[in-house]
Structures are given as structure tokens and as C-alpha cells.
Amino acid sequence: GQNIDQPTEMTATEGAIVQINCTYQTSGFNGLFWYQQHAGEAPTFLSYNVLDGLEEKGRFSSFLSRSKGYSYLLLKELQMKDSASYLCAVQDSNYQLIWGAGTKLIIKP
Amino acid sequence: ETGVTQTPRHLVMGMTNKKSLKCEQHLGHNAMYWYKQSAKKPLELMFVYSLEERVENNSVPSRFSPECPNSSHLFLHLHTLQPEDSALYLCASSQEAPGDGTGELFFGEGSRLTVL
Predict the structure, then answer these.
(1) Residue A66 has pLDDT above 80, yes or no
(2) Which of A43, A97, A102 is nearest residue B107 as measured by Cβ atoms?
(3) Cβ contact, residue pair A40, B109, below 8 Å
(4) Rounded mean pLDDT of B1-26?
(5) What is the distance between the alpha carbons of residues B96 and B103, in angstroms, rounded to a whole number?
(6) Beta strands in B1-116 (DSSP E)
(7) Is B59 helix (H, G, I), strand (E, B) or coil?
(8) Looking at the partner chain, which of B43, B56, B107 has a beta carbon nearest the beta carbon of A99?
(9) Where is pLDDT greater, at B59 or A17?
(10) CB-based contact A31:A50 (threshold 8 Å)
(11) Which residues of chain B does A33 touch, with a Cβ-Cβ cutoff of 8 Å?
(12) Distance between CA A39 and CA A84 in Å, rounded?
């Protein structure tokens, strides 16, 4: 079967750095997405990785290793507004999105 | 504002009721989706429409009936639901059909459904 694993919940301190990991086992690979979802709001696109390496976008970076079936989302200089759920999703060989259950990130002052 | 609007935001219905969820996208996208989101579970894809034609139906019970009258509007008709159908129903759109583009999705804020 196809599977995406990510931690259920993480806690970090304002101003610090946090890394949210995502491991996947899918039938083929056509890209990995990270989405952010604040409570009661729509998920919003953060990043897309299809090649190995690090993609940096402001305070957020996303890393992919296809050989290891592994990605992480790195959030720097954490702000209270970063408290949200972070969803990892992989496109399989049929371009179907396989979703993780999400990581709830709690930021403390 | 994501460009995808869902109504109603909240809905409470009995098991014998018939109701509909509505989604409208203002982005000029070609594909629209219905997802079910339950607490602590992965998003479950229910239906995909590309250029108003249904391209995917992930073994969804017949008590859920989608309708896509044009590329900007998507409905989910609900009847004789069960309490386990209580969840957040998310609508999304993408520029192209799955496989034709990067696949980035634009989501609405969802309709929170409670079945009594």
C-alpha cells in the first residue's frame, strides 16, 4: 500500500527553528507538496519538490531525497502565526495525491 | 482569500435530510475536487472533475452525489447520510487536470458537516 508518515504534533519556541519530517512509500513519484492549514481555514500551498535538494522560500525551506523517500519542511525564525497544521502529500505514478495525516505545530512564546 | 468559495460553512442535518454543498472557483481553473477531512486522518479524495467531466470517483458511497454544471461550479448533493459522514468537506481547484501540470491545489475553507 501507499503510505505517508509525519509526526502528529510538534512544539517549538518563537524565534527558533523547527524541522517537520515526512517519509513516504508510494507507487512511483511525481513530486512532493507541503501545505499549511490554520485551524478553520483552507490548506494553502507552501512548496513543491520534484528533484532532490533544498528549495528555499523566505523563512521556509523544503528538502527532498527521492532515494530515501524522505522530505522535510524547515521553518526558521518561528512566529506565533506559524502555529498550524502542515500537510505532506506525494503525487504517485498516476498523479494521484497521497496525503499524510498532517503535523500540528504549536509555537510557544 | 484563495479564490475558491464554499457554502455553507457549517451544516447540521439529520440522517433523512437532503442538502447540498456548493463550491465556486474564480481562478479560471480546469479541474475541481471534493475532499473529506476527518480529524487526525489524511485527506480523502472523493471526486475529481476535469473540464466538467468526472475523471475520478474513489469508491464513494452513493449517498454522496457530485454535480459539475460548468468549470467554475461544483456541488456535492447529500442524502440519507450517516453520523460517520460528519467531517470537513473541502473543495479544491487546479489549473490543469492531474498529470497535466504541477498539481498545485487551491482549497476553499470547507463546509463543516454534522450528521445527527
Answers:
(1) yes
(2) A43
(3) yes
(4) 93
(5) 7
(6) 4-7, 10-13, 18-25, 31-37, 44-50, 53-57, 64-70, 73-79, 87-94, 106-107, 111-115
(7) coil
(8) B43
(9) A17
(10) yes
(11) 103-104
(12) 7
Most confident of A13-22, B51-60, B101-110: A13-22
- Report pLDDT digits (tens) over B88-97: 999 999 998 8
Q: How many Cβ atoms from other residues are within 10 Å of residue B40's Cβ?
A: 10
Cα–Cα distance between A105 and A11 in angstroms, integer? 6
In sequence order, what DSSP letters do the residues of A61-94 get, joined into one string?
EEEEETTTTEEEEEE-S--GGG-EEEEEEEE-TT
pLDDT in tens, A74-94: 999 999 999 999 999 999 998
Using CA coordinates, name the residue in chain B closest to A4. B42
What's the gap in Å between the CA of B18 and the closest CA on chain A?
Answer: 25
Interface of B with A (CB under 8 A): 2, 4, 40-43, 45, 56, 90, 98-99, 102-110
